[in-house]
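protien #1 (seq + structre)
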Amino acid sequence: MSEFILKYFPHLSDIQKDRFSMLKGMYDRWNSMINIISRKDMDNFYIHHVLHSLSIAKVIDFLPGTSIIDIGTGGGFPGIPLAILFPDSEFTMIDSIGKKIKVVRAVSDELGLKNVTTIHKRIEDETGKYQFVISRAVTGLQEFVSLSSKNITPVGINSLRNGIFYLKGGDLTEELSSITRKATVWQIKDFFKEPYFETKVIVYLPV
């Protein structure tokens, strides 16, 4: 398994270590059939995809029974790595592109993840309620908030209020100024020292 994961998450169980170490080979195999991750990114798979996804775990420790929806999950990020890390939380992965959901379903099945549900649907059509929404920059922040806020239930159990965790890069000043609710922004470089994270942030918007 990538040393990057163990460096920042040293207390993984043997099952979690096994699952993380299986990921690269599984995505290599799927990528050769369905191009879901760029070749350049596959060379840095554990940093660009797995560790980036796990940055959310540096700001919240999802309690057992937490329900989370990964909107526009693509190949399963950030949802799959977080589902490995939080086996007692429930993750729903939604994407409008069928072949991507096919990959997410196959990967979660092969890993034996019992806490992952996949949905082939546009978020506009999803009516389910969840405690948290997670995503990796699928659209502009304001549009994303307006699309996904309807899916957040007000009833929470975690240390942070239910809301949205959005992984984004670059300067967010303009986007955040258009959001009425108060956002918290964490610099991922404060958690992970790799140069890739220099401009990456986690945006948290409580409901």
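ok now protien #2
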Amino acid sequence: MDIDLKKENCSVNINLFRWLFFMVISISFINSSLAQGDLVIFPKRIVFDGKKKVEQLNLANIGKDSAVYNVSFIEYRMNELGEFEVITEPDPGQHFATPNLRIYPRQVTLAPNESQTIKIQVTNTNNLEDGEYRSHLYFRAIKNNTPLGQENKTIDSLAISIKLKVVYGISIATIINKGISNTVTSISGLAYEKDINSRSFLNFEINRKGNMSVYGDITINYISKENILYEVGKVRGLAVYAPGTIRKIKMPLQNPVGVNFSDGKYVVIYTLNKTEKVIAEAELEI
């Protein structure tokens, strides 16, 4: 009796641990992960800077169906609007990371509410020239199985049934940085705009010059003539990928109650992601 009880308690503890682990991971995904469809990925980018040779990604299926994903690499360029374009050859000044990366496993099967870890390893970097090497880890859904536990249903031969299954992909930047960054970042071209629906926007440009990309958070503050500061805009995880030198931004502004954007100034601050180190700042007087 005692042995059976211990086994039962052990099973309950294991199941409880798995559930708690999945919930903790799911909550952490809210602010620091990518999600599309039922696949959630954490973290949302990988950077090898010489300190580590292996990084891990946590994948979670938050849907009701089991799913299979192929894992590979894809190459992108980023245009001035932040849109990605698939390429096969690097642009001048661009270097792909794919030849120096390994993935394990290359295919992942996830049941509903199941999570799994994959590993990305960097190899053969000793002979690389200083600079940035970037590719994007690409997860492609290839199968959407019948939900686990679903019973077969009788088919009405007189009825026509169509079931559409969306097949999608999601990618995250995977970067190898070799050497010291000499990148310089600035903000220019600030312009306030109000549309026909009285919504407020701030237009500006992030300028990048140097051997590596920049990635960080944008904060827009409005400072009134009474010197009261209001945070009116926030975007996390905004990048300007090398070799691109400019990214054009149009950010909607929150309008605090009772505040009139007519006499004061906007301050745009670009900070390194997670460190909050300011790498660029600009002001616009109204």
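The mean pLDDT is 83.
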